[in-house]
Amino acid sequence: MSNITDSIYKMRFLDETADKRTPVHDLHPLSKLLVTIAYVTVVVSYGKYDVSKLLPLVFYPVVILFSAEIPLLPLLKRTLAVMPLVIGIGVFNPVFDRETIAVIFGLPISGGWISFISLLLKCVLTVLSALLLVATTGMERISFALRMLFVPRIFVMQLMLTYRFISVLLEEAANIWNSYTLRAPRQKGISHQVWGPLLGQMLMRTYDRAQRVYQAMVLRGFNGEYNTGSAKQLLLKDFLYLASWVAFFAAARHYNIPLFIGSILTGVGK
Questions:
Q1: Half-sphere exposure of 111 (CA within 13 A, CB side)
Q2: Which of 72, 81, 97, 264 is at a distance of 20 to 30 A from 166, taking alpha carbons?
Q3: Which letter, b or e, does each residue of 138-162 get, where b requires 16 or more Cβ atoms within 10 Å of its Cβ?
Q4: What pLDDT, in 10s, does the model give residues 170-184?
Q5: Contact 54/121 with Cβ under 8 angstroms?
Q6: CB-based contacts of 75: which residues, under 8 Å, 6+ apart?
Q7: DSSP per residue over 1-37, as a string?
Q8: pLDDT by residue (tens digit) across 234-251?
């Protein structure tokens, strides 16, 4: 039960943080969406051995976290949830790529380990940037920004309703769990004999509740377009926010900033 409750809280946590009033939250959702798209594009464009070149891009999520006053630990927990999949994909890199391409403190480092670390870093940065977008904007305003980019309405609605439907599914799972534990208070866990019926009940209850939600939306004037209120105009601060971050991403992509800083500190290359 605690796992289900925690999952519901995690869904609502992002919605609650999106309602804060900070300089980042007050920016236009389109500018934040475009910055996130540019960031993810730049991160995934690096080569598998470019670990050092990726390090300056850590600056972006750090700045957003502090500017938007978002706690780091909850976002890191959500980011780490996808790590097992990435680890399963890249865990064999050190096995197949054994060529030494670096030596650190006399210890040879193979290309497989470097590519594995690069894959993990890319995963953390891209997932964290997406979570920051939701935490500072909200799914409704993201949908509004997607419509401004002329994304087809059906895709935007599918994204929006799927996001909302997950919380409905979790709430119905919590209700079924409560009902089951009240009828079997001394039993530890759920018996495997009732897994099928409980799963069917959960899907039926969730579908029935989703239908009631849809009918309520229709009664309130829903006609296939999710209206989020009056359109917000792009201001000068939104253009500056977009231009400054895109310029930083471009500079980090075309120049090895850590190598440049290292050469200045050590005097090498002068």
A1: 9
A2: 72
A3: bbbbbbbbbbeeeeeeeebbeebbe
A4: 777 777 777 777 777
A5: yes
A6: 65, 128, 131, 132, 135
A7: -HHHHHHHHHHHHHHHHHT--STTTTS-HHHHHHHHH
A8: 889 999 999 999 999 999
